């Protein structure tokens, strides 16, 4: 059981770190966009910000789906335990 807890914490830390990096990058890009005078550079930054935001949205959606699957597995295991 401790192995699962350690692995879960490792995954949690990894996911949290990735999401924090994406959020930090979005914040940096927003700041750069407001200060950028060059239209072409601003457009590139906007494109990168859109792509990073899309990646973050997909990440959140995947985490939500994993959570739903874990709930189903937990319900199934609890159902089996009741039968023992």
Automatic annotation (TrEMBL):
Residues 12-69 form a coiled coil. It comes from the Eukaryota. Keywords: Coiled coil. The keyword Coiled coil applies. This is Uncharacterized protein. It comes from Paramecium primaurelia.
């Amino acid at each position: 059981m401790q192995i699962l807890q350690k692995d879960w914490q490792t995954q949690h830390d990894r996911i949290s770190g990735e999401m924090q990096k994406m959020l930090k990058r979005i914040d940096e890009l927003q700041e750069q966009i407001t200060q950028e005078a060059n239209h072409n550079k601003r457009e590139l930054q906007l494109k990168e910000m859109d792509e990073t935001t899309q990646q973050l949205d997909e990440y959140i959606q995947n985490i939500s789906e994993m959570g739903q699957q874990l709930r189903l597995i937990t319900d199934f295991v609890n159902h089996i335990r009741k039968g023992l």
